[in-house]
TrEMBL record, chain A:
It comes from Penicillium angulare. Its main location: endoplasmic reticulum. One of its GO terms (biological process) is macroautophagy. Transmembrane segments: none annotated. It is found in: Endoplasmic reticulum; Golgi apparatus, cis-Golgi network. Gene3D superfamilies: Trafficking protein particle complex subunit 3. Keywords: Endoplasmic reticulum, ER-Golgi transport, Golgi apparatus, Transport. This is Trafficking protein particle complex subunit BET3. Belongs to the TRAPP small subunits family. BET3 subfamily. Pfam families: TRAPP.
From TrEMBL, chain B:
This is Trafficking protein particle complex subunit. SUPFAM superfamilies: SNARE-like. The keyword Endoplasmic reticulum applies. Signal peptide: none annotated. Its main location: endoplasmic reticulum. It comes from Penicillium angulare. GO terms for cellular component: endoplasmic reticulum; Golgi apparatus; TRAPP complex. GO terms for biological process: endoplasmic reticulum to Golgi vesicle-mediated transport. It is found in: Endoplasmic reticulum; Golgi apparatus, cis-Golgi network; Golgi apparatus. It holds the Pfam family Sybindin. Belongs to the TRAPP small subunits family. TRAPPC4 subfamily. Keywords: Endoplasmic reticulum, ER-Golgi transport, Golgi apparatus, Transport.
Length: 191, 200
């Protein structure tokens, strides 16, 4: 499946099948959660990142069913297809953004998602305590969502942010690596 | 809303009664095609455990809870077997567009593929008797939806897709539903019943 086809599917579902809510409600809710976590963990940002990832993981495990039910897409033939599906369909229908897929490694097992637009981070300025800028990945929940949802379709991945405009970087970039295809649940042609 | 709070096994809905009444013997099969008679639904989790079972028509013979559990487990096993015995053809040595890297789930490593390469074996999809048809839909996450319908009905797929959507909405999105556990979501029951009733 080509990138263009994935884009069309994402666009179509976004237009016809998705209930919309006020974006600011999402932004403010998410911001509140992160701020509360920072408070609860006394600005231990490593721990906050971990909690956000965990929350995302739990969301992803549930969200994947909605994604599959709405999109009706089949299994991706390879990891490149999976990347397009995530960027052009997944992010499109749930956040109305379509990050760019780029920086593939030669073995096709790692890629980056570049976010030109990140609705979670609107209005946000990280605390200027001298550490948040270096330690907190504000949108870390997204990494967890990818990890959880892909695990449910037997793809084990690792995802983390490598840069964030909130920290003063030029881009917001998430790195996604394929760990393995989980064989137990696979149809038996894997043996 | 009060109507929707009726007992789950909604009985005596007028349009359902006609099926077995005498005048119905004259109805053409064409007319029956437009009536989607869904008898019951079973949902099996990816481990083969029964997580949901429900009838939609009155007067169906019921099994004991234990029998349903056995049925679910047995079907799970049979389904796995049917996938295993799916015949495969030797791969034609045509250039595949994507180089299969280790771990790619395209079944290229073995040199054999299903008639349609890239599409894994689905396993048992239909089981039909004179009186009913069992349709099995397995999601990519491994959950199986078993729908028992009248063998005359068409477009089971539409019904299946809708059920999957309702499941995604009212079961998976319910934050207090524990994954892989039995489904006890009143909203799911309600919307399922309402939607099926609206169709018949």
């Amino acid at each position: 499946m080509s990138t263009n086809k994935a884009s069309r599917i994402g666009e179509e579902i976004w237009k016809t099948r998705v209930d919309k809510v006020n974006a600011e409600l999402v932004t403010l809710t998410y911001g509140t959660i992160v701020a509360q976590l920072c408070q609860d963990y006394n600005s231990d940002y490593q721990e906050v990142n971990k909690q956000l990832d965990k929350m995302g993981y739990n969301i992803g495990m549930r969200l994947i069913e909605d994604f599959l039910a709405k999109s009706g897409v089949g299994r991706c033939a390879n990891f490149r297809e999976t990347a397009d599906m995530i960027a052009k369909v997944g992010f499109k229908i749930f956040l109305n953004v379509a990050p760019t897929v780029t920086n593939w490694t030669s073995d096709n097992n790692q890629f980056s998602l570049i976010f030109d637009d990140n609705p979670l981070a609107d209005f946000v300025e990280l605390p200027d305590d001298g550490r948040a800028q270096d330690e907190l990945w504000f949108s870390n929940i997204l990494c967890g969502v990818l990890r959880g949802s892909l695990e449910m379709v037997q793809v084990q991945i690792e995802a983390h942010f490598v840069s964030d405009v909130l920290r003063g970087d030029d881009t917001t970039e998430m790195r996604v690596s394929l760990v393995r295809y989980i064989e137990d649940e696979m149809p038996p042609e894997e043996e | 809303m009060s109507i929707l709070n009726l007992p789950l096994e909604f009985t005596g809905a007028p349009h359902n009664c006609g099926r077995h009444s005498p005048q119905n013997t004259f109805s053409s099969s064409h007319a029956q095609l437009s009536i989607m008679t869904v008898f019951s639904l079973i949902i099996i989790n990816k481990a083969g455990g029964l997580i949901y079972q429900r009838e939609f028509q009155p007067g169906l013979r019921k099994l004991s809870t234990n029998d349903y559990l056995v049925l679910a487990g047995t079907f799970h096993g049979v389904h796995a077997i049917t996938r295993t015995i799916t015949p495969r053809l030797p791969l034609q040595n045509t250039a595949s567009p994507v180089v299969a890297s280790p771990g790619t789930n395209a079944p290229t490593t073995s040199g054999y593929s299903y008639p349609n390469p890239g599409v894994p074996a689905s396993g048992l999809e239909y089981l039909e008797t004179e009186k009913f048809r069992l349709t099995c839909f397995q999601t990519l996450t491994g959950t199986k939806f078993l729908l028992f319908t009248d063998p005359m009905t068409g477009s089971v797929e539409t019904v299946m897709n809708k059920i999957y959507e309702l499941y995604a909405d009212y079961v998976m999105k319910n934050p207090f539903y524990q994954l892989e556990m039995p489904v006890r979501c009143e909203a799911f029951d309600r919307h399922l019943a309402a939607w099926l009733r609206g169709r018949t």
